[in-house]
Amino acid sequence: MPQAAFRGGLVFSGDNGMNVTLITSTPDPPMVEVHLSDAPVECECAGDVIADVNRLGNWIRGLEMLGTAGFSLERALAPFNPKLRVASVRSPQAEQAVTYDGEADAGFLYLPYASPASVERDPMLLEYSLSIEDESAAFGLSADKGLVFVRFRVPASMSLEAFLQLFGSPQFHR
After folding, report:
1. Staple partner for 118: which of 4, 38, 147, 172, CB 3.0–4.6 Å?
2. Model-level pTM?
């Protein structure tokens, strides 16, 4: 996949204070990259990701990642100390968290978004409306096969600005 010029985005720390996450995007084609580590990328593998969206077209919660034959999702998520249950993650979450389900070989990267104050103003912000899926998302892996980034396409019919709004707009982080 050709490298697109990604523009700057939201930066925040993970739950252990060591993982720094950067969300960037490019409009043509509409893509989002969630950069999770400063480690050099040793290889890129294709995989399947799903993002949930609310009625306004805002990306909510985080990113579901499904295991593939190309790499071990469990190994890729290990550096993030995955939790076993979704119940251990708050909504809206204030910090990054990762869960992994070995039986389903699926992980979920929960990202901070939508402050509690913004949810009080509009509780519908958290309400799921639809999912978008990219079955050919790029997973950047380090030499030890840890996850460095996930890059996925956003449907051209969606506004990239609206899609990222809950993650990057200061009005939602007060």
Report:
1. 172
2. 0.84
